[in-house]
Amino acid sequence: MHLTALLGGSILLAFVLLDAFQTIILPRRPVGRFRITRLFFLVTWSPWTALAGIVSSRRGREQLYSAYGPLALLVLFIIWALLLILAYGLIFFGLGMPFADPTHPASALGILWSCVYVSGTTIFTLGLGDVLPTSQMARVLIVMEAGTGLGFVALVIGYVPVLYTAFSNREISVALLDARAGSPPTAGELLVRHSFSGGHEALTLLLSEWERWAAIMLETHISYPILCYYRSQHDNQSWLSALTAILDACSLLITTVEGPSTRQAQLTFAVARHVLVDLGHVFQLESKEQGYRENVAVRLKDDEFGELCRVLNESGFSLCSSPDTRSRLTSIRKLYEPHAQAMAEYLHLDLPRWSPLAPNANKKPDGWKTVAELRSPSAVADRLKIHVSPRSTASQLSDEDSHRF
After folding, report:
1. For residue 243, what are the CA distances in angstroms to 246, 272, 278, 329, 351?
2. Is the domain of 120 the same as that of 23?
């Protein structure tokens, strides 16, 4: 018997099964610095981002980033399978090759290869029968490995639909935010687009939906962190920018904007911030968060804050007149912005602005503004300098959609 191989194979087997259990089955945050899944992401994500950084076009970089999540999932399954084969092969080798092999390997390397071969054919339940067990222990281990292989395949089949269901549910709310907060979303645009009669009620309902969305994120993305690498369908959208825009809007409603939505903003803020904090622990970004905590003023400078207040005031919102409004906003931003900035740096995602950019004369307005202007045909006519008809409006919307996507 080769005790070293037997002990090493047993430890490796337990290591792989524990990692697969924590990653797929355990419905809570995985723990441990030396898990296979964590080490895999540490080893592969940095080179992948370096490769994407070579690409000059933003669209090309986003395509590479978006391919990482699904590809990493497939490679992780392959790594687990190969390690299971190696683990059982080492156990067979440690037991002294308890098989009748017609090739009669003589060298230690040949015997090890035969053991790994038996392990591979067993875990995939091929059942070739060319190498036969000669001891009761070997027969028991072969049955155990065959059961492990079937269980592994069943877990993979059940794991992938769960992931993509969670991803689809996440992206539905992100896509819906496009018409409510712009693309990319901003807190200022979100509030401005709710400056209509009954807008506070609609805003409260929207924040309530995002409170539930954040709670779902806590249940899915903490258990399955690989979903954080999955990008949105469009380059100007992401779950992180949407979540940050909602937190920005909640911060304004809590500290700057007066209205009945403040209570719901507090509830949504608490759960949404919890998502960023927990994900920072999962990816162990505490050191990066500390670096951003001392420089929180970068995202919202004085001129942008002044412009934001002007836009909100012109839209009919009542702003707090307290002299410490800005300091209170800065204090609440320190609760979540360092976590968002650290996550954005790690995942190479962009954080949103606080207020929308000024309209560009050379850029067509987004679909929401075009539809909103249909309430005022004269405004559309002034902008297009043509007579507005149903056919021209429909063609305009079609052109804008094709230009965007």
Report:
1. 5, 7, 14, 17, 10
2. yes
Q: How far apart are CA 393 and CA 364, in angstroms?
A: 14
Q: What pLDDT band is residue 400 in, cutting at 50, 70 and 90?
A: very low
Number of domains in the chain: 3
Q: At what angle do helices 286-293 and 262-282 cross, to 10 degrees?
A: 130
Backbone dihedral angles phi then psi of residue 318, each to the nearest 5 degrees: -90, 125
Identify which of 86, 11, 45 has the alpha carbon closest to the alpha carbon of residue 283: 45
Dump pLDDT digits (tens) for 244-292: 999 999 999 999 988 888 999 999 999 999 999 999 988 888 877 776 7
SS3 39: helix
Report CA-CA distances (Å) from 375 to 178, 320, 323, 381. Answer: 20, 32, 39, 12
Taking the CA atoms of residue 161, residue 167, residue 168 and residue 172 in that order, the dihedral angle to the nearest 10 degrees is 160
Half-sphere exposure of 380 (CA within 13 A, CB side): 18
- For the segment 9-51, what is each residue's pLDDT rounded down to a tens digit? 999 999 999 988 888 887 777 777 778 888 999 899 999 999 9
Residue 357 domain-assigned (yes or no) = no
- Classify residue 349 as left (phi > 0), alpha (psi -120 to 50) or beta: beta
* Rounded Cα gap, residues 161 and 141, in angstroms: 31
Taking the C-alpha atoms of 81, 83, 85 and 86 in order, what is their torsion angle to the nearest 10 degrees? Answer: 160
Rounded-to-integer distance, Cα 223 and Cα 278, Å: 11
Instruction: Quote the domain boundaries for residue 263.
Output: 177-347
Do 304 and 385 fall within a single domain? Answer: no
Secondary element (H or E) of residue 347: helix 337-347
